[in-house]
Input
Amino acid sequence: MMQKYFRNFLILLVAIPLLEGCKKDSVIPPDPYYRDYFTAEAGQYIIYNCDSIVFDDFNGTIDTFRFRVKEYYESEFVDNAGRNAIRIERYKQPLNSSNWTLSDVWQVTKTDQQVEKVEEDVRMIKLIFPVVDDKEWNINALNNLGKRTVTYKEAHLPYSTDVLNFDSTVTVENTDPQNLINEYRDTEIFAKGLGMIYKRFVNVQYVTPPAIGVESGTVFTMQAVEFGVE
Output
């Protein structure tokens, strides 16, 4: 009887470390490439508050348009290259309305190397992996719009929109130099575990110095205010 008890005790001593090792192995380590800065899945949606300011030098007017955009990741499909992709339905809503109107259908493909998004039939490389500060790439490498270099800034830092807080984000911005004549600046911020939460697009012509101000062009911003799954 004692021998049987002792034998079972030895088996238990051997089994416990093995079970602990299995538990440790089952924990998924963090992705060193930070691919989770874009995690869209079918059924997910993000709603943005949008402001569009248009400077018209011909009429001498400044017009501001405010509305909402909803990007709904409607379904998965296989693209022309045989890769898994997601169909994005984009809806617009005036601020004084509760009705959404379908405005565009885009698509996005995420690979181990990058995130490709097709906007208005133009394919762009929105993110590349790994996500690290000062990493540069040509966002237009997959289209014919000409080379445009973008870079990562402020990687893995917190960021807040008007209503939402995010623990870890990264900024993507074009590297075009600033000058006193005009400005072309496209800034997008991506949040870990979600995707794009902020966008600011500036394409303006400044009044010739010594005067100060914008003569013509557009300033467009998007800020995430809601996200979830339907």
